[in-house]
Specification:
Pfam family, one: LANC_like
CATH architecture of one domain: Orthogonal Bundle
GO molecular function, one term: metal ion binding
Mean pLDDT: 88
Low-confidence stretches: none
Protein name: Protein kinase domain-containing protein
CATH topology of one domain: Transferase(Phosphotransferase), domain 1
Keywords: Metal-binding, Zinc
InterPro entries: 6hp_glycosidase-like_sf, Kinase-like_dom_sf, LANC-like, Prot_kinase_dom
Strand content: 5-15%
Length: 786
């Protein structure tokens, strides 16, 4: 690389005014509100803070240009002296080049940071299942070996082959010394198109920050401090083997279902006779003596036990307090000076939490002078063990993240005259899945939570608007969204007329309007009686049967004549579904009915039959129980988690859909909890828990929506909480809901949609805000009989 070459600011580099960052993030930062944050998602370097002039200079690199040309153009536009500007900006531009924010125009690293392999691709005998994580130089995948052993695969990204070849070889050597203790065992080391890769044993687990957040929110002090002890034990064991990790941060600490700790990512580690292949680490956990060296632009030397002890103590602070040791500046040099010079400002918070003894241990481990720290992490562990008795940690309220703002925005859009009510909505205009009927249903449920008559009136308005659009050509289809009749059919509960009338009836039930309920149910029955060949929930008879179950639970169904029509229709649909699946061979042997997931396959068909049996006060048939058992045997277990392939003959699972409602584990949670409630067999409860773990721990590279994304997975965890009253599942649901609220803002399939956009996520946030009976809308019970 030559400094005279053209450089470019990659398209995925974001420059954001600090004042525009999320309020929750600003609370954790020092007062840098006048600056601009420069970040590249997936970069290994921290977000940088620059002033306004530097931010505008960086924007000059959105197209390829040399540094000299960019400075000349910028200076001319800003009426500045070009030579002075070049001198002033050279250091910060150099840092941006070092951090991979500015790259040479012809570099492969100029491409957006994204994975390059797809599910089903192969690395030798390994078959890729899904992408797990991607950063500037590395892609991480979940895969299976040829004999079915799950593994994690690190693959060098294009442009980083030389550096990563050394790091991955080094990591394999360190892991070999550990022999499967503390770190994962090495399974394979290889090359793919001249890109090195390393495969290690897969750990079905969550990272330390996620595990600690659960314990803090539940107010479970023994579990939280027990987690801290186990993490300290793992690092003490590592140091006892003369290995220093070199890259301490919460994502490199995994916690499995039993609480066992696995430390991962040893590319920067050292051992006796095995010097570090590179020096790095996350600045937030950097020891003061290393921060001083970086400020002085000198080599800090190899990692030391004392420096790593500081990093581990900083990690413990984050896990116990839920925040870092300092309110860090986004400007890197300022952050390093804070580490070098300032006493951590988190101790008062911990002392208020009645953890004074623990604070004493952490103060020593976080001493500025390495000599003042404990002699080893083992000694720190002994000190912490003696400090962990006493009163519990106060329960932390749910902070909602971006969720509350999302709820307010969605409710405003759906109720204010100057918003969607007047401007109209894009096709499809009427459906429950994506149109006005879905808006009505969300508002109905929010109104019932708040006891808000105005919201109930708005729900009624949207329900009638949906009905008025039924005959419109764009009521249920959209060429732009590839929602066409050939795919949707014309009898779907979620995508066609029957769903609109069902929502009208539910809203009428909420208003206790018997005549309106009868009228809507009669219209639903007429629409649902038309021939409907598909079985599936999404487009066929199983979805219509779920609609019957939902309406049967409303109070009006037991008194109105339309209730009898509804029962007759439900029995007819259940009989036709049962007859068709009875003719099929065993699920694993079938050639036609092979789809397994909730939206399109066996999980949805069986759930619909269980729901109808439940509302009718009957037990499911022996044939249904036999199919449940067949489906149970097709589970693929990984530690505490289980998932199912999307198809009976699929050799592998499909990326993040493995955790989703539509095709993955989240869709099995309502099935197995319903089976457990009706049949009382604890095997089904075990399967529900295992599916919930997959829904919780599934890939994070997922959309935010209900159908395929994080919100649908959060609803599954809420179902698990409702079924067993274990508050930890509610906490996990809220954690996923926070991520869903952030993700849906960035990447909605359709902004105003119940199942594919912000409306469904807003409903989720509202329902999880208090004691909840949250269930996936228009799928699970609405709670009318509660």
């Amino acid at each position: 690389m030559s400094i005279t070459e053209p450089f470019i600011l990659p398209a995925d580099v974001q420059i954001i005014a600090v004042a525009d960052l999320p309020p929750a993030l600003l609370e954790e930062l020092a007062n840098d509100s006048d600056g601009f944050a420069v970040t590249r998602h997936g970069s290994r370097t921290a977000t940088s803070l620059v002033d306004g002039a530097t931010a505008r200079l960086l924007e000059c690199f959105r197209t390829p240009t040399t540094i000299v040309d960019a400075v000349l153009a910028f200076s001319g536009a800003e009426n500045l002296d070009a030579r002075e500007m070049l001198d002033e900006s050279f250091a910060v531009l150099g840092t941006m080049i070092t951090d991979g924010v500015l790259v040479t125009a012809d570099s492969l690293l100029a491409e957006p940071i994204a994975t390059t392999l797809r599910p089903g691709d192969r690395l030798g005998e390994l078959e890729i299942v899904e992408a797990v994580h991607v950063v500037l130089d590395t892609e991480v995948y979940r895969a299976f070996t040829g004999d079915g052993v799950p593994c994690a695969v690190k693959l060098a990204r294009p442009g980083s082959e030389t550096r990563m070849r050394a790091l991955l070889s080094h990591e394999a050597e360190i892991l070999g010394l550990l022999g499967g203790q503390v770190g994962p065992p090495v399974l394979r080391l290889g090359e793919f198109e001249e890109r090195p890769w390393l495969a290690v044993a897969w750990s079905a687990a969550v990272d330390a920050a996620t595990a600690a957040a659960e314990h803090r929110m539940a107010g479970d002090r023994p579990a939280l401090l027990g987690l801290v002890e186990k993490i300290l034990e793992a690092y003490a064991q590592l140091h006892a083997r003369s290995v220093l990790h070199g890259d301490v941060h919460p994502r490199n600490v995994l916690v499995d279902a039993t609480g066992a700790i696995t430390l991962i990512d040893y590319g920067l580690a050292t051992a006796d006779g095995v010097p570090a292949a590179a020096v790095g680490g996350v600045d937030l956990f950097t020891a003061p003596e290393f921060a001083a060296a970086r400020l002085d632009r000198r080599d800090p030397g190899p990692p030391t036990q004392a420096a790593e002890q500081y990093s581990i103590a900083a990690l413990v602070v984050l896990l116990v307090a839920g925040r870092h040791t300092h309110k860090f500046s986004l400007e890197r040099d300022v952050m390093l000076r804070q580490l070098r010079d300032e006493t951590p400002d988190v101790f008062d918070q911990l002392e208020v939490s009645r953890l004074e003894a623990l604070v004493a241990s952490l103060r020593r481990a976080l001493a500025k002078d390495p000599v003042d720290r404990f002699t080893s992490v083992a000694e720190l562990l002994r000190s912490v063990r003696s400090a962990v008795t006493g009163a519990g940690v106060p329960r932390q309220p749910w902070r909602h993240g971006a969720g509350r703002a999302l709820v307010s925005d969605v409710v405003r859009r759906l109720t204010m005259p100057d918003a969607l009510l007047s401007s109209g909505i894009d096709a499809p205009t009427a459906s429950a899945m994506n149109g006005a009927a879905g808006f009505a249903h969300a508002l109905l449920r929010i109104a019932s939570i708040r006891g808000d008559g105005e919201l109930l009136a708005a729900a009624d308005l949207w329900a009638e608007r949906a009905a008025a659009h039924i005959a419109s050509p764009d009521a249920f289809t959209s060429a732009d969204l590839e929602l066409i009749s050939d795919t949707l059919g014309d009898r779907s509960f979620y995508h066609h007329e029957a769903g609109v009338h069902a929502v009208r009836a539910l809203v009428a039930g909420g208003r206790d309007d018997g005549p309106a309920w009868c009228s809507a149910v009669e219209a639903f029955v007429r629409a649902a009686r038309r021939p409907c060949p598909p079985l599936e929930v999404a487009f066929g008879r199983a979805g219509l049967l779920l609609g019957c179950a939902l309406l049967h639970e409303t109070p009006q169904s037991s008194t109105a004549n339309a209730g009898g029509q509804l029962t007759k229709l439900g029995d007819e649909l259940a009989t036709s579904i049962a007859a068709e699946i009875d003719r099929a061979p065993a699920i694993a042997d079938g050639e036609e009915l092979t789809r397994l997931g909730a939206a399109h396959g066996w999980a949805g068909w069986l759930y619909a039959l269980l729901r109808w049996a439940d509302v009718q006060g009957r037990l499911p048939s022996e044939a249904v129980v036999e199919r449940l058992d067949q489906l149970a045997t097709m589970a693929r277990w990984e530690g505490r988690a289980a998932c199912w392939p999307p198809d009976a003959h699929a050799p592998t699972l499909e990326n993040t859909l493995a955790a989703s409602w539509c095709n993955g584990a989240a869709g099995y949670v309502p099935l197995w909890t319903a089976a457990h409630a009706l049949l009382g067999d604890d095997r089904y409860l075990e399967l529900a828990r295992a599916a919930s773990w997959t829904a919780y721990e599934g890939g994070d590279v997922a959309p935010g929506d209900l159908c395929c994304g994080l919100a649908g997975r959060a609803y599954a965890l809420a179902t698990m909480h409702r079924h067993g009253s274990d508050e930890r599942w509610l906490i996990r649901a809220r954690l996923l809901a926070d991520r869903a609220a952030e993700r849906i803002r960035d990447r909605p399939f359709r902004r105003d949609s119940l199942y594919k956009g912000e409306v469904g996520v807003a409903l989720l946030i509202e329902e999880l805000n208090g004691p909840t009976r949250a269930g996936l809308p228009l799928y699970e019970s609405e709670g009318w009989t509660a």
